[in-house]
Amino acid sequence: MLIDMYMSDDNKPIGWWLKEVDRLLEQSFEEVLAADGLNRRQWQILNAAREDAPIAVTLAPFLSGGPDELASFTAPLVERGWLDGDRLTPDGATALEQLTGKVHAQRLRVTNGIVDAEYLQTIDVLRRMAANLGHEAGTSAGPGHDAGTAVTAGRKPGMAARAGNGSAA
User: Fold this and answer.
1) pLDDT digits (tens, 9 = 90+) for 37-83
2) Single pTM value for the model
3) What is the DSSP string of 56-75?
């Protein structure tokens, strides 16, 4: 059986790869956003501010420290004039549009060499594994998360540019 096979350095179990990819995604997106004085949570907050739900509700899966933790991320955005309560200001919307281009470019780098079918199959397998572990279908994995969407605009033929407005990657 596949899960019983020997796990060499190049053939580690899925849990190891999930954590490694998550770590590398976090690191790479932090680096992209740091150039603009932001972190990934602030990126998620800007995206969440476009939605109808309160930011605290949308970001609940990512926050464990309560209102003070959220305020530590939102205060710099308010100071920049990008956020007013739970809503983007016009300057915030402009900044988000510019940042979206940078994040999109990073997503293209992350998925370089991965064709649409591979990406979608990977998402499907992970979704089914999550369901096997108790994840309820239809619940959000984070703000604006729609990992199953693939768009080919702006990619080499046969390559997917992942859509979504900025959560996970």
Assistant:
1) 999 899 999 999 999 999 999 998 888 887 889 999 999 999 999 99
2) 0.67
3) HHHTGGG--SHHHHHHHHHH
